[in-house]
Amino acid sequence: xxxxxxxxxxxxxxxxxxxxxxxxxxxxxxxxxxxxxxxxxxxxxxxxxxxxxxx
Length: 55
Description:
Blueprint: H1 2-5, H2 10-17, H3 21-35, H4 40-48
């Protein structure tokens, strides 16, 4: 999530970590599900410790 938060694409993260893009997508989906959010932006907000918008 840190690499995605820095603006890297899924493909760029996959290349850096020697993973397939599909593997990165699956892991991101797992994180979103565990955080109970629907998108990466919401996950980044929670992981950065900021208050979610609209609260």
